[in-house]
């Protein structure tokens, strides 16, 4: 073969191989696009309500619990703290995180580490606060679209096996957990980027002065948790309650700051700050906003329930129960009953959190008692709930 013909033949071979390579690459690309897993959100929506004790979180939790599309649990990490009570709060956060991840995935075997294997549904902390555990398939005495009270549920639905918890969880489109045992958001970042979860965070805060006033009525009930938060030595004497509040206020600063990180793409649209006072001042509007964030329909039946539960009379009689009461008066009770000396001390330890979250300081007893003086900065002055 002459050199010119050999060169021509080589060129033809190179061109042919090039065409085949292009075709093969295109085939692989098409094959990959056909078979590679698509980045879709899980079908189920997961909502974590982050708050602290006596901050209106039980009421906010019931906004979700009473929704017929929601499987709700109230503070399942209580079991972690009870089983590992010798540790401090920060050391328990990862164990609590792993537990709530399993709950979000409806894997209730995670409780084997913290509860007896021979257990009923009623062994779960605050199980009766969950409408989902008071209706089929967890209980046959009520329908899923019923508004169910804790008392009625506890009376009729307690003697069902624990396996009903997991069975019920798998039948709902939304799983909602309310927790008071996380003190920063970074420990939850792995859940926010977990492809098996579709997690959103609702950060519920309340005026620290109202929280302090409410905690004074329940010091004995909260003693166990307070010891874990600050240590028994820092939870003694007159200074003890202020030490606990200082840590709670610091945690709200951390969570809010970490949740508002605009540079973290996985937080976009997944963090919402909610002030309890904004809920009680306009319950229907705020509930609608919360439901929209959670991708839930605000049914007419729920609208009636929300109105009735926030427009009752009186301040309520049971500290940890949800009943019809005058929600606005409840939120303002500290202004009438808490001595100004205590308010001044509390403001001293929580000032940074109050400034950040939009709570105005009172500088005298006259300002405290002046109910015409609005102590809330308008919500428009705070960063948007859903933009981050």
From TrEMBL:
It is a single-pass type II membrane protein. One of its GO terms (cellular component) is Golgi membrane. GO terms for biological process: carbohydrate metabolic process; N-acetylglucosamine metabolic process; sulfur compound metabolic process. Keywords: Carbohydrate metabolism, Glycoprotein, Golgi apparatus, Membrane, Signal-anchor, Transferase, Transmembrane, Transmembrane helix. The keyword Transferase applies. GO terms for molecular function: N-acetylglucosamine 6-O-sulfotransferase activity. It is found in: Golgi apparatus membrane. The chain crosses the membrane at residues 7-31. Its main location: Golgi. InterPro entries: Carbohydrate_sulfotransferase (IPR016469), Gal/GlcNAc/GalNAc_ST (IPR051135), P-loop_NTPase (IPR027417). PANTHER family: CARBOHYDRATE SULFOTRANSFERASE, CARBOHYDRATE SULFOTRANSFERASE 4. Belongs to the sulfotransferase 1 family. Gal/GlcNAc/GalNAc subfamily. This is Sulfotransferase.
């Amino acid at each position: 073969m002459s050199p010119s013909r050999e060169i021509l033949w080589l060129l033809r071979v190179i061109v042919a191989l090039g065409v085949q390579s292009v075709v093969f690459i295109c085939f692989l690309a098409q094959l990959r696009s056909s078979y590679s897993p698509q980045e879709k959100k899980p079908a189920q929506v997961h909502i974590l309500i982050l708050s602290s004790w006596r901050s209106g979180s039980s009421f906010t939790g019931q906004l979700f619990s009473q929704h017929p599309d929601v499987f709700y649990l109230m503070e399942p990490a209580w079991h972690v703290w009870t089983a590992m009570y010798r540790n401090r709060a920060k050391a328990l956060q990862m164990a609590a995180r792993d537990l709530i991840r399993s709950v979000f995935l409806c894997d209730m075997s995670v409780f084997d580490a913290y509860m007896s294997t021979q257990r009923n549904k009623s062994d779960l902390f605050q199980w009766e606060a969950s409408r989902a555990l008071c209706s089929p398939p967890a209980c046959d005495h009520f329908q899923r679209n019923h508004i169910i009270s804790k008392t009625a549920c506890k009376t009729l639905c307690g003697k069902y096996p624990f396996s009903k918890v997991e069975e019920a969880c798998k039948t709902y489109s939304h799983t909602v957990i309310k927790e008071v045992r996380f003190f920063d958001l970074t420990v939850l970042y792995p859940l926010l980027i977990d492809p098996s979860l579709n997690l959103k965070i609702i950060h519920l805060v309340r005026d620290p002065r109202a929280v302090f006033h409410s905690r004074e009525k329940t010091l004995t009930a909260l003693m166990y948790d307070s010891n874990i938060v600050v240590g028994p030595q820092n939870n003694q004497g007159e200074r003890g309650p202020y030490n606990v509040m200082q840590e709670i206020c610091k945690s709200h600063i951390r969570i809010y700051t970490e949740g508002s990180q605009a540079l973290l793409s996985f937080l976009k649209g997944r963090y919402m700050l909610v002030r309890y006072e904004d809920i009680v001042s306009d319950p229907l509007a705020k509930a609608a906003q919360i439901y929209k964030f959670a991708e839930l329909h605000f049914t007419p039946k729920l609208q009636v329930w929300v109105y009735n539960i926030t427009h009752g009379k009186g301040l309520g009689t049971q500290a940890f129960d949800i009943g019809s009461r005058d929600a606005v008066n409840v939120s303002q009770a500290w202004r009438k009953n808490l001595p100004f000396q205590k308010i001044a001390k509390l403001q001293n330890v929580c000032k940074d959190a109050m400034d950040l979250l939009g709570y105005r300081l009172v500088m005298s007893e006259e300002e405290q008692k002046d109910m015409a003086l609005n102590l809330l900065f308008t919500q428009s002055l705070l960063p948007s709930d859903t933009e981050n």
